[in-house]
Amino acid sequence: LEGSLGETLKKKQEQAMRSATKMIQMMKGKALTSTFMAWYAFTREAKEDRVKMERFLAKWKNQGIAKCYMAWTQYVVEEKRYKFLVNRFLQRLNNGVVFRIFAAWVSMIEENKRNKIIIARFRVRMMNMEVAKSLGSWKEFVGLRLRMKYLARRILNRCENGQFLSAWIPWVEFTAAAREK
């Protein structure tokens, strides 16, 4: 009896252990499942948020592109209108007296520019010629002045030599006479 009581107790303990193990495994499974479900919900929400953000950015980008496109189309329309007006104005000028007057004025301005250049070159040449003449006459003056100095020096040297000789001859005669005495 005692043996059977111990065995019964042991069996009940083993059965309680198995029940507890099943409960723990079941709880672990539920925790794992709930954790997985929470992770799944989080990733799904993150993906939805990412998709929403991508859509928002695409719309925002498209709005910018649309604004640029609208501005460009408006610019093209204005540019065409401007070219049309300019062409119409030029056609009116081409057909009328105004264009001939304008063309004559332009050619006159161009001719005046050419004439001013020619006159300026002529003026520079004349000034250079005057400078060259002045420089030439100055060089000639300097040359003549040097020649005059040279000739004056020769004359002075001859005069000095003449005075020296005129004094030398009487001295030589005097010394010769003094020797004879």
Automatic annotation (TrEMBL):
The lineage of its organism: Eukaryota, Sar, Stramenopiles, Ochrophyta, Bolidophyceae. This is Sfi1 spindle body domain-containing protein. It comes from the Eukaryota. It comes from Triparma laevis f. inornata.
